Amino acid sequence: MQLLRIAHLAVWEWPAAIKEDGAPILFAHATGFHGRLWDRIIPPNRHCFAIDLRGHGRSGKDLPSYDWRRFGEDTAMVAKELGLRGAVGVGHSLGGHAMALAAAMEPSAFSSLLLVDPVIQIPDRYDGHHKEVDFIARRRARWKSPDEMFERFRARPPFSNWKPEILHDYCEFGLLPDGDEFVLACPPKIEATIYERSNWPDADISAELSTIQTPATVMRSGKLMTREKFDLSASATDPNLASRMPNARDVCLPQCSHFIPMEHPDLVIAALQ
After folding, report:
1. How far is the C-alpha of 77 from the C-alpha of 9, rounded, in Å?
2. 60, 115, 114: which is closest to 238 by C-alpha?
3. Beta-sheet pairing, 181-184 with 216-221
4. pLDDT tens digits in sequence order for the chain, 273 residues long
5. At the top level of CATH, which class does the domain 2-271 belong to?
6. Are 116 and 90 in contact (CB under 8 A)?
7. What pTM value is reported for the model?
8. Which of 8, 50, 105, 228 is the most exposed place for a label (fewest CB within 10 A)?
């Protein structure tokens, strides 16, 4: 595994660990996360890449915009710079929104899409309605070590439902050294800004969705988010999203929360086989 730099982005690369068998895979993560949360899902027989989206992980933090379209444009740029042709695009949450827009912008880069509870909402939700995200902006940003963060989170929902090894990766790569301590690799103010803008009108990619001919699977939680309660473990995915795309199928998982790759990585692994 190695770390690449493409413009303002960090991109993790895993060459196939055994004989390569199948198309390369490009992964994009959720808001506040990072590319190394895919570690336990990376197939050993595939050439894989995972982006640290802008404002996250090892990518740039001083960019002028964190509007949702910028993440899709970044993902399309990475696919183009990597020279991907016929790759599998996998995106969770914000990363699903970004991957769908990237597929519309660079259709030849992708042969299929796996959109895991993507934050692509019902069109009428893009009304700029204010979200109460102050609690995200106030997140504890400084930690003594990744182990301290892990011990603090392991018994707290939603992290208590995650696979322990994935929570460990979240902590290990979700912090950056800062003197004798560590700071969150996605600063809380940036994370809060992204959530605030999730239902801005320019985040609506309905027009682009209708042009995506790439076969797509929409894997979504059965726990639906309501307008009245901003619940990070609930799904903001339009239940009819697959029908809005020319060549998509819907897979609803009633037993799962929004954090499908963290709680049920086996389901994502199986979908990539």
Report:
1. 10
2. 115
3. unpaired
4. 899 999 999 999 999 999 999 999 999 999 999 999 999 999 999 999 999 999 999 999 999 999 999 999 999 999 999 999 999 999 999 999 999 999 999 999 999 999 999 999 999 999 988 778 889 999 999 999 999 999 999 999 999 999 999 999 999 999 999 999 999 999 999 999 999 999 999 999 999 999 999 999 999 999 998 877 788 999 999 999 999 999 999 999 999 999 999 999 999 999 999
5. alpha beta
6. yes
7. 0.97
8. 228
Residue the block writes with tokens 């027989």: 45
